[in-house]
Design goal:
The structure is a homodimer.
Chain A lengths: L4 H10 L3 E4 L6 H16 L4 E4 L9 H4 L11 E5 L20 E4 L10 E4 L6 H11 L6 H14 L10 H11 L5 H10 L3 H13 L1 E3 L4 E6 L1 H7 L21 E9 L2 E8 L5 H7 L3 E2 L3 E7 L2 H12 L11
Parallel strand pairs in A: 1-2, 1-3, 3-4, 4-5, 7-8
Antiparallel strand pairs in A: 6-7, 8-9, 9-11, 10-11
């Protein structure tokens, strides 16, 4: 059942002993909303813990460095930024059918929770949660404000992407009033990278190849490359955007070998071309600007498959070129 | 003479036939404030042109693609985001002593203009100019709003740096109401790079070396490197931040060979260490987090000079290590 801001505020006040569930492969938004909600509930004298199936990334360490899980019998199950019970992951799947309240911003939310507050136009779950706290007249302390800021900043690429709302900016201004250290947070979240990640980025830049009148780049990373250079496929997560950085490139493709002869394809658009339409021709899918599919073969064969699939979308007849 | 918002608004209304001067090596803020001011003045029925000693970068093309310089005798000389008459560059230096009005945000403004509106706490000249327009009750059209947004976004690293003000966020929200296409602007300004720039970044990542318990990186780019890889020192501008990306690194140094045996050093801090103090030991200077100096010698000798200068600031005794 969908509920509104006021009903969510009332729900939070009336209940106690919360397990707050975050999604697997936790990001800044699910963690930010989880830890902000936990802090606010505890400050109200309630019990609350934050749970996740996976380990929390170190770059968000400030959110949990002073956090201690408490011992209590859970009475209320809440989920934040979790669009589908499947995304709770293996350790939390047991709670999937028993979520009392979900606070989210995904248009794709499956409605698995008994009560659902979802604003599909919000840039982040933290934006929705901020509105709940305003409705409750909560005075945010610095750490809660930093958690909310981080969720909004990470989901919008630091206010860079098209999903950035006016409200995201307005809220950021209000959170700065609570003492958020945006310089430190943004440096840790956006600018700091592991050595292996930097090696992976360097590899992508050095292997990038231009095709189709330089409107398309393809970068193939093989298992042998990763072995030789000393990085894993984990370090390649979130790097597909590099493939559309060159001026004039409309479609960028990052191809990662997952197992011998099996390749995961991540496709990005920096133009009006809908890459989900291209990927669906290969049995994949996704969004207009970011999509993916899986292909089999050797590297050269993969490249040919991709180019023949992409060329018509760029208005290029490959066989006459 | 320093004037306030209201006096600036009155000045702009009372005068006509403006030459609007931007600083040399124009960036998003000087161009954004220049073209926004020009557009607003023209919409008020006045004559105004935007002038610059250097060519405008293509990535800000949307600001000037429909702009046509007019023919008129200049009566009023205004400068935007220009802290010092010297920064007007060779073509505009003739106006240096005759600037009637300067709108700026640099604490270092030399006061060369007859009337000066400067807010040193503002994140950008465009933030100051937005306040002037509000004082004048100007209704901004989409293009003027996009110019102002671009200035604020570029000077704050898209709201990422510590100079981002609450007002920067509040203004961004208001400018979005005027129809600013933040997705397109931010992609062109922040994500799009020339091939040569991407090669330069790849080179920096591949040549970066770790020193002093991995708390310091040094990357040396020689004239021979640039020749071989096909990029120029222009492509290295604004890349020094890469040297402090690795986790744990406190000081990053980018060393560019300017002429045979003469090196320009750019130093960045990602910690409490004040790199301007280090650079001043080498006859240079700058800010706490970003400073520079010039050194002579060969690459190995430069490295030793730098390491012996940096080590004490990291609490490391180089000769015992």
């Amino acid at each position: 059942m969908q509920i509104n801001l006021n009903e969510t505020a009332e729900f939070l006040k009336e209940h106690d002993n919360y397990y707050i569930l975050t999604h697997q492969s936790p990001d800044g938004d699910t963690m930010g909303s989880g830890f902000a909600l936990c802090r606010v509930l505890r400050n109200m004298g309630k019990n609350a813990n934050v749970l996740c199936s996976d380990e929390f990334p170190r770059k968000y360490g400030f959110m949990y460095e002073d956090y201690e899980p408490r011992k209590f019998a859970p009475e209320t199950i809440a989920a934040v930024d979790v669009a589908d019970a499947k995304l709770l992951g293996s350790k939390l799947s047991q709670y999937g059918d028993y979520v009392d309240l979900c606070i989210d911003h995904h248009v794709s939310n499956t409605g698995y929770a008994k009560k659902l507050l979802v604003y599909p136009d919000a840039s982040a779950a933290c934006e929705v949660l901020y509105r709940v706290f305003s409705e409750m007249d909560v005075k945010l302390d610095k750490l809660a404000a930093e958690c909310l800021y981080t969720g909004i900043a990470t989901d919008t690429g630091c206010f860079k992407y098209g999903n950035t709302t006016k409200l995201a900016h307005t809220i950021a201004a209000k959170l700065m009033d609570c003492g958020v250290d945006i310089e430190r947070i943004n440096r840790d979240v956006f600018d700091r990278k592991s050595k292996a990640r930097l090696i992976a980025e360097q590899h992508i830049l050095s292997e990038m190849e231009y095709y189709l009148d330089d409107k398309c780049t393809i970068t193939i990373v093989t298992l042998a490359d990763m072995e030789k250079k000393g990085f894993s496929s984990e370090e390649l997560e979130g790097t597909a955007g590099i493939t559309v950085q060159p001026e004039g490139v409309q479609i960028g493709v990052l191809v990662k070998e997952k197992e011998k002869g099996k390749f995961k394809v991540s496709m990005r658009s920096a133009s009006e071309v809908d890459v989900s339409a291209i990927c669906s021709k290969f049995g994949g899918g996704g969004h207009v600007k970011a999509a993916g599919c899986t292909l089999e073969g050797d590297a050269d064969n993969i490249k040919l498959q991709l180019l023949s699939g992409i060329a018509p979308f760029l208005g290029i007849d490959l066989w006459l070129a």
